[in-house]
Amino acid sequence: MEFKRILMSLFLIAVTLCISFAEKPAQFHVVVIAEHGGIHEPFVMAARSWLQKLSADSSFTIEYIENTEKIDSVFLANCQLFIQLNYPPYMWSWKAMSAFEKYISEGNRGGWIGFHHASLLGEFDGYPMWQWFSDFMGGIRFTNYIAGFASATITVEDNNHPSMKSIPSSFEIVKDEWYTYNKSPRANVHVLASVDESTYRPSSDIKMGDHPVIWTNDHMKARNIYIFMGHDPGLFSNVAFTTLFRNSIFWAATRKFQ
Fold it and tell me: Would you give per-residue pLDDT tens digits along the chain (258 residues)?
């Protein structure tokens, strides 16, 4: 009888372990690109700390890069999510641009999340504008920004999108630069949220009217989402922002996460 009880105990332990492993989400690999130093470093360091904890809790791995030297088709083949945390759409090698275009257009490897600096589209530091990336972002070009920063209210337009789950219909962003573009990307993208420019504090004349700040391009096969906010490290104390970031990771990384 004692031997049978031991066997039964071992069997129950094995079943429990199997269930435990089965319940864990499939591991995926995330590549995060962010420039070293500069004015966005405090945001990047806060993001890295937050991502480190989330990855440990949620069974995914992270690789950080500071430029596009490594990016090619082989490198992206092992990447289920590419996060453009703080890197503009210029300073990319031709090899990296070609591989990234294929990664997003074909959509059979993974997804993309872009923040803030990713919509700095135009001619900067001697680099031409990457036209494909402009089209990817809705055909926009950067025109101006609120250099002195402002708080503002974000209005959610599609609360049924997986990235917007558990996010209130409106929420406050305390400090950001609020880029403007030559036109609204709305005609070419699926807008998830916009900023109410009448809520700028302090008020500003730098406005564009219809002003989307979170959107996804449904014309691309890869799941993708652009989130304008991404300058101030205080964003990681904002529950709406961290919920949006977390939702977007699991939505964009793999189609298994809804």
Answer: 555 554 455 444 443 444 343 344 448 999 999 998 888 899 999 999 999 999 998 889 999 999 999 999 999 999 999 999 999 999 999 999 999 999 999 998 899 999 999 999 999 999 999 999 999 999 999 999 999 999 999 999 999 999 999 999 999 999 999 999 999 999 999 999 999 999 999 999 999 999 999 999 999 999 999 999 999 999 999 999 999 999 999 999 975 433
Q: Is the pTM of this model over 0.90?
A: no
Specify if 22 maps to a domain.
Answer: no
Q: Which residues pair with 225 in a beta bridge?
A: 113
**CATH code: domain of residue 188:** 3.40.50.880
Half-sphere exposure of 93 (CA within 13 A, CB side): 10
Whether 77 is covered by a domain: the verdict is: yes
215 lies in some domain: yes
Return the axis-axis angle of helices 41-58 and 239-253, rounded to nearest 10°: 60
